[in-house]
Amino acid sequence: MEVTGARQERAWQQGVLPPVEEVRPGLWSIPVPFPRNPLRYVLVYAFALEDGVAIVDAGWDCDEAWEGLKSGLATAGYQISDVRTVLVTHLHPDHFGLVGRVRARSGARIAMHPADARLLRHRGRLDEEDYAHVSREQLRRAGCPRDLYTGQHAMPLVRFEACDGADDALHDGDRVDLPGWNLRAVWTPGHTPGHLCFVERDLGLLLSGDHVLPRITPTILLSPGHERDPLGSYAASLRKIADLDVDEVLPAHEWRFRGLRDRVHTMLRHHDDRLAEIEHAVRSAPGITAWQATERLTWSRPFQQMAQPSQRLALREILAHLVVLSELGRVRETGDPVAHWYPCPVSDGPLLVPQTTVKEFPR
């Protein structure tokens, strides 16, 4: 893999915000602050149009990010009122958060995959209470300590208002209506059910959202109401884009790079290694709960030092891997009200994320 966003990588190492850059004529990279988060910023991409500008993602919903987005657009020669379209890679609030403010100021159309748009529909109080109950039950059944799931709520999403929603649904392979650009949507579920990447075929660019990042791997969580097997979907989505004919990858975090295929294979190996580590934990302690397995695994920092929200995310990440191991016939789940995991009698062999199929994007 070759780093092409050298100024971005240097800024990362220095702990500062990278500059606004025109990465191709009429295409700008705008870092929007993501306060109090180790990711630091979201890279919003702005495409010049004859009558304004289109942006990919918008940033976290806070005043610091709002000012950063306005300042970045100004550097490119635009104002918020010039935004005609917002293309949303996925539903997470660091990407979708400011979409409502942008639309209110500009009248921009919002385009995203319907699977994520559905999850952002307005919820009433009773809907929120029902979801919180399901979320707590999932953690309880995984063996999570009571003080970590009592009263816990999932990461709050920025939602559409009542009787509102996305203006345009983008499906796999759709041509995006941006005059002057040859941009197509690529459906890459896993990180979220409706995650989208965008390919600019004439320029050989992949706007990868959170699907492929140069330094870290995105979290793949078993979240209530989302996919049954998010890791299987994610692995299939990685394989789907591995051989795209692109010269450069423009991610939503960190920095630009070349070498998509090598990076994809590195990320797949990471998940295969993680599956092997989790299976080993189950075989070493038959009847282990998902929470106990999570405590035993290696993390970038000691698990007991993580804040409670991070521990819950870690647990849901391990649950996603246990689903794959169960599908592979390597482990089985039993017990209620708390689930316990046992090894299955299988022959030794390579542990690979299953070759799940996601519709192929036409190259």
UniProtKB/TrEMBL annotation:
Residue span(s) of domain Metallo-beta-lactamase? 41-253
Query: Keywords of this protein's UniProt record, alphabetized?
Result: Hydrolase
Q: Which InterPro entries match?
A: Metallo-B-lactamas, RibonucZ/Hydroxyglut_hydro, Sec-metab_biosynth-thioest, WH-like_DNA-bd_sf
- Which domain of life does this protein belong to? Bacteria
Keyword DNA damage among record annotations? no
**Gene Ontology terms for molecular function:** hydrolase activity
Q: Which Pfam families match?
A: Lactamase_B (PF00753)
Q: What is the protein's name according to its record?
A: MBL fold metallo-hydrolase
**Which species is the source of this protein?**
Streptomyces botrytidirepellens
